[in-house]
Amino acid sequence: MKQVLVIVLALFIVGCSSTSKVALSEDSFLLTSNDPEYGYTESKPIELGGFLRGTKSAGAHIEYFEGLMGPNGEKVKVTRLGSCCEFEDKSMPFGGGLLDRYQLTYEGQKKPVIIYVNLYKFNKPLAPMGFALL
């Protein structure tokens, strides 16, 4: 099982090459933030973590990126750009951490976007504006 998780994670780090659209029905439940800064700024990262505390959300970042779509159901290519942006949080075992940056692209998009992700803390995530989460 761990090998499968490692392979899936590696695929997301490298990025998907497919740019096909996902069929959306009127019954689809799409979760998108109303905050224009959510995910796009260091001060409002998408909180997908929990692996330090062994919570059930340990694979949340993989599930999150699998469910992320462009505004019209386009498949999103996710490329991890690396860690950045040190932050302090006294509630964490090490008193803080680093955010990760990801580039998101989809077919027909004018310009790739960069999002910030906190892999230490978990809060039920939404898609940043301009994207949808299934």
TrEMBL record:
Protein's UniProt name: 2-dehydro-3-deoxyphosphooctonate aldolase
Alphabetic keyword roster: Signal
This protein's record includes keyword Signal: yes
PROSITE patterns xref list: PROKAR_LIPOPROTEIN
Signal sequence bounds: 1-22
